Structures are given as C-alpha cells and as structure tokens.
Amino acid sequence: MTIAKEKNPPVKLPNEPTITPAIVAEHGLSPDEYQRVLTIMGREPTMVELGIFSAMWSEHCSYKSSKVWLKKLPTEAPWVIQGPGENAGVIDIGDGQAAIFKMESHNHPSYIEPYQGAATGVGGILRDVFTMGARPIANLNALRFGDPAHPKTRHLVSGVVAGIGGYGNCMGIPTVGGETNFHAAYNGNILVNAMTVGIAPTDRIFYAAAAGLGNPMVYVGSKTGRDGIHGATMSSTEFNEDSESKRPTVQVGDPFVEKLLLEACLELMATDAIVAIQDMGAAGLTSSSFEMAAKGGLGLEMALDKVPMREEGMNPYELMLSESQERMLMVLKPGREEEARKIFEKWELDFAVIGHLTDTERMVLSWHGDIVANIPIPPLVTSAPMYERPWKLTKLPAVLDAAKVPAPTDWKASLLKLMGCPDLASKAWIWHQYDHLIMGNTAIRPQDGDAALVRVPGTYKGLAITSDCTPRYVQAHPETGGRQAVAEAWRNITATGAEPLAITDNMNFGNPQKPEIMGQFAGAVMGMAEACKVLNFPVVSGNVSLYNETEGKPILPTPTIGAVGVINDLSKAVGSRLIQAGISLVLVGETKGWLGQSLYLREMFGREEGAPPPVDLEVERHNGDFVRDQIDRGRIVACHDLSDGGLLVALAEMCIAGGVGAEITLPATGIPSHAFLYGEDQARYLVASPRADKILNTAAKRGVPAVVLGNTGGAALTVKGVLSVALSDIKAVHEAWLPDYMNRTE
Amino acid sequence: MKAAVLVFPGSNREGDVAQAIELITGRKPQMVWHGAGDFDKADLIVLPGGFSYGDYLRCGAMAAQSPVMAEVKRRAAQGVPVLAICNGFQIAAEAGLVPGVLMRNENLKFICGDVHLKVETSQSLFTNRYQAGQVIKVPVAHAEGNYFADEDTLKRLEDRGQVAFRYCAPDGTVDGSGNPNGSIRNIAGVYNETKTVLGLMPHPENAIEPIFGGTDGKALFEGLVEALS
Fold it and tell me: Which residues, including other chains, have CB under 8 Å from residue A409's CB and lie 6 or more apart?
C-alpha cells in the first residue's frame, strides 16, 4: 500500500502563531528533528501537527536514546506470549491463564506534585494492564527518595504514599510489595516506579493493533480536560528551578472513574465486540491513536469536536496533547457500537464514536468539518529520530580489602544502627496505608517474605512478585549492578519456592546526552542481558525514564526490576519469618566477606567505596535451583536471601518478623567476623529447617556450599562470642525510624 | 442460606464477601446492582466494602440514597438480616439502619492490617458461633472508621447490648493500644435495636482461609448459615 498524497491540506486555526525556532524549541524538538518534520510533511506543519511530532518524538514516547540498547535484552522464552512493545508483557502461567504485567515510572510528576503524580502513576499502570483484558490482582511500588535530612523529603514521602494508597485502595487492587530507599542523589528527582500484575485467560488477550477498514474508533472514560498537556515532553527534559512552575503539566487522577472504567472494559471484553484497545497514557489521544493505526498499518480519520470535553473553549491542540486520566480508545467491530454504549452508560462513563479507520495510512484530524492535521503515519513512526549516543563505560573500581574495613567497636550498636537506618528500617508506616489484603488472596504480606505472594483467583496457584535494584552497586559498576538487580529479583522469587518466569524493567537514568550517563545505561543493560540469559528470565515489558537530573546532578542509575514467578501449590510456599523454635539455620552459598559498597561500610563509616560484590550467574542459578527444590520437598520452613546488610541483617529480619530468636556460631573460615556477618556476597540464602541433615546431604551431592550455623529459639539474636541482642531491642529501632521521622515537625 | 450482595459504583470488596459466602455455603450469592429497585428474596443482605461513589461528598452518603437502599430499608424493617461491612457500615449508618457515624481515622490516614476484636456477646445471629469475650483477629482497611455517637446513644447501645465488637489488645484488654482509628469506646461494630443489622468496620470476609489471614472470620458466616438455613 502506498501512502495517499495529501488531498486536504489543513486550515490554520484562529490566532494560530507562525512557527518560529523558539516555538520549535519549546516543543522539545532539535533543529535537526524539525528538519525531519519538514521533510516528512513536505510543508510547514500546523501547530496541532507540531504538537503531535513533539509528543511522539519525545524521549518518553519514542525511546530515541535507549532503543538501540534495549534491543540487546533477551525477550523470549517458551512461556512468553507477548514481549515488549504492547501495553504490558504477557506470560503463560499454565491452565489457560496468563499473567500480564509491567512497571512504569512517574518520576517527574511525583516530584512536582507528589499526591497526584504518584496516584496517576498507579492509575496509568493499572490501565496498561487492564487494557489487555486482565483483571489486576496486585500492585507494587519501588520508591527512591532523597536524603531524609533534605527539607523536601518528608513532604514527598507523605504525598507519594498517600497518592499511591488513595488510588490503589479505591480501585480495590491490593498493594502487596515494593521497596523504599533514601539517598541524597534523589534529592531533586525522586523515583516513583509503579507495577501492576493482572490475570487473563490466554485466549482473551486484547492488543492495540487496529484492524478493519471503516471500523469505528471509540473514545470511552473520562472527559478530556486541559491537564497534563505536554506531560510527555516535560518528562523528557532535565529539571531546574523553574520545574515547580510545571505543576499544570501534572495530571489529576480520579480512581473512582478508573474503577468504573475497569469494570466497564472487562464487561465489554467478555463479549467479542472489541477489535483493538489502547489506553490513553503519556501523550494521550496522540500516542494512542498513532500507535493503534501504525500497528495495524492503517489510516485514521477523527473528528476532534466529537471528543467529550470537560470544559468549553478547548481546541484541537489541547485535545490531542491532554493527558487527562481514565480514558481509553478502542476499535469496535462494525455495528457493535450500541451494545458497547449501553455498557459504558450503565457505568456512567462517556462513550463517543470519534472516527473510523481508513486505508490511507494518514492521520486526518478535523475540527467542525475543517481539517486541522494531516500527517502520514508510517514516517512519523519509522523515521522517528533514533540516536546512538556516545557512551563511556564506568570502570570497575578497585576491590576493597575487607581486612582494611574496621570491625565495629560495639557489635550491638552496629546491628541496631543498621536495622534502624533509613534503607533497612521497617516500611510498615508505608504499607499499612495500602490495602494489601483486599481480594483475600494475599498469602505473603509485605515484610513477611522476600517476594509478595498472591493467589491466582479461583486456583491454588500463587504468583510471587518482587521489585529490586541496588542503585549503589549500579553506580559503582553498572554492569555488575545490572546483573545484580536481575539476580536479586530472581533470588527473591526463588526464596518463596516459586519458579521465576519473567521481568519488567524500569530504567531510571540521568541525561543520556552525557556519555558517562549513556555509559551507565549501556553497562546496566549489558549486565541485565547477561543475567536474563543465564537465568532464563526474559524481559517482557518495561519503561525508560531519562533526564532524571536536577541542576545537572544525576540520580544514581536505577534499573528497577519487577519480577514474576509462579508456584503451582501455594501450600508449599515459604516466607522469611521464623516462627518455630528448635530448628536449624542453614547458610546456603559461599561467603567471602565482601564489604565493598556494603551498607555496613556506608552506614557505619559514611563510605560508598570499592567494587560491588561480583555476581556469578552460574552460581546464582545453581544455588537458587537447589533452594527452590529443597522448598518443594518441604525441607525448608523459612527462607531469606542475603542482600543489603548481609547475613546478620537477614537473620535479624527473620527473627523479628516471626518473633523467634536464634543462636549461631561463626564457622572457622579465617574471614573477619564483621566481613562474614555484614558482607554482601551474592547467591546466598539463609534457611530454617527441621531437616538440616537432608539439606546438607543433597547440597554436598550437588556441590552447593551449605553449612549449619545454629538453631532458632529464645528471645534474642546471639552470635556466639560476638553479640547477643534482645529481639525487642532490634524490633524497637527497626520499627521506630520511619514513623518518628514522618511525625517529626521541624 | 440465600445471600444478596449489593453492588454500588465503586464497591470493591463485593468479590471478597461473595467468595467467603460461597466457600462456606457452597452457593454463590446474588449480586444486586444499585440501580435495581427490587431483587430476589434473600435470607441475608450484604452491604460490602469499597468506595461507593468514590467516597465523594461523605463516605456512604450517596449510596445511602441509591434506589436499591429503599428496598433494603424496607426488608430490614421486616427483619431480614443485613451485614454491613466497612463502606457498607458507612452506608448503613448514613441510611439510619444502625446508630452512630464514622469519621476520619484519628491519624488521618488509611490503615490496613490485622486488628484484634473482642466479641461482646454471642447472643446474635452474627456471633452465635463465638463466645462472649472471645478475642478474634481480622483485618481492617479504611480511612474513615472512627466510630462516634453521642453519650445518650452510647448509653443506650451499651444498655441494650448493641455493641457487637470492640478493638482490643491481643490479650483482650480494651484500651487505646488496640484501637486503630480512635473509635469511641473502641467500638468496631454495632447492631440495630433488634440485632438483625450488624455494621462493622473490620473484614471478617478476609479471614476465612488459613494461609490468607487466618480463619477467625469464618464463624461469623457459619453462624449466619446455621441461624438462617
């Protein structure tokens, strides 16, 4: 099919300005990119057209800096039904069911307006998942805030948490997990990464590709207002002191309407009236309509005056660029409009036929009969700028000799300091504000295990879900950090007994135009790709957030990994709480005492130094497969992977979560005690078992390092000859920090 | 037992309570859309949790005015038992089916987690499978569960045994430590005068199966089945 020539050049709207270099720059297009626009159009664009190019070619929508790298990530496995490129990734979980999931950032909006920014982040990711026909069953959030001492941090934590809760609670989707970290590098640019997991029958998954000449294009959901105009462009630039003035570009969410939209969409999806469906997220009507038409290889004519509008006096430019929430675009089969309309009217939502599909491969937009935009679709999509930006890899820092890191002068104080530090302190203050129990399927609650575990409704299968990243490792050495983020996610799924299946990645980085930042991105992708390959853990969806910088200061590179695994019999799953006294504690995996980039080093001595712990992926796989198998055989009753803070922190967490103490003895290794107890060597698990003999036997046969450290019991955590601390003391500092911090008025 | 679960725009725990009822009775409840003027005969009416009408205006205020509520009030007056949970309790209070009001939680935040409840009496359709004074563990999930009534009403409630559940410590002590939301006299649930309507903030429907939060809520539904079958 050849693209039809432009028959109807658009009219200029009243008061339409002439396009100047300044207007082009305001739209975030470089002079080169504007030249490309002129070539594609063969004439000067109208303002509506310029706005469309601006949105579609923004970093946020086009992935122009990241695409060349993202291609390196493994995306296939026999259980992958849909990889990256759709609204969300889809994997087969057996029995005719699919898990549909994705993680997405809402960083810039959440910094500018934390409540609405975070709320609409949750709303957006929920829509991405239910657009595909899934009922969402779990939400997670990975949050990174600035230094707790920074004057804005408390306000941001408070607003973001309230926003996430406000939206997710009203939607009735449990928020079951996530992570929250603090670091000064996020002072001017927090990260809010929201993940949703849903379930759909494998034979009823909905996609975005439009099909069927003449089929009606239908708009449903909320009316379009003037909020969030140019949100995608705003998210694609660095912050400066003027960013506060961008508050009007942040969208305002209405979870009640989204709940109605969810129910209405699922009700319509139960019929066969829908050909294609796409939510209106970033760049609203523009990106949704272009994506649907482009994927279907078709053209589209839309009458913008038919779009339901929230206020009078709106113009085509605003309608195409608004990021008003809770809206969907769908292609219906011909003649099914009335049936669909009835469903949306029952749920008191707007429903409007706004256009139809054509074979011209052009997007023709009209306004009260006049053409206001006429753009050839394929070149806009395929000739979008794509950059191979210069990149410079971060060199591996020198390895820090553990013997040169001082031992604590007061062991008890060191453990209490770590357990009460912002990164490790209990986040109960946060997750108690989230409904994590609704739907009645939550088997492992926040803080009770390495991953959340939710039942697949109507079955006795469970999905294990986690989100992970250790940004200080990625900063020190992106390749190792990328590998570690994927490996830790895989380990967390494994620690529940579930089989890790696939991941979604949320790549948060600084300004890609700086070679060292692009090098961080490249390095992280290389590490992730390697880990995904060895662990057979493909990427099925993701999101890239660049320009996370304020006043030229970048965030720590943060490739957040959201992971999903499945366990076929929920009764076999384990959490990390110690609830049984008199059983053995077994350390699985090899300990070398790696203190470089450890939390111990940072929290005790204020040092962020050295190379991060190396990740041997073959060993990860070998040890993890062993642990999962032991859980499946019923030999393990509690399991925790060792990560931030190492062995001692992991043991302390297990003890206070279940209220049962432990006494361990350090094996004779020659490793200094503090390196053994606080080192962050990878591929390790601490497991509690009444049948340690069997575990050791099997481990010996399979060549997995495993050693009995001691037993559970009592009301204290004791390491013979090193320390003994009452659990109540640990619990007190662990639980106090966040509420004390949030309740302080300074 | 034939149960009817009402569904308002924004209800979101109707599935949880339907799942609990089905598990215990082996029978799916009838789901009734708020626009219905009438619905099939039912032995039990459930007003479920959620955010009916987005909690806009005031929690439960709009749902209390919806067409189906006139029918619910009529049947409740005839003695059909009504179980009103969380947002359902807010709706029932707004509709005048139970005394008192539910205000914003004392800490002004949404709160979700397990709480302990003291069962005040076993002399009701809803609690006949519990012992008076028994402590049970069930979750709460709400932002507006801070129960309040004036002194005269409270006296009447206490005198007539209309307090159904109180928040308590794990050992049964009724004091501030177990009170999640600031409810007056730790009241978590109340009956109407005939004890045929129960309004409560906690979610017994989320405490039915061992690995999903314990089974302390199960007896409430089993008691209803026994009384109503």
Answer: none
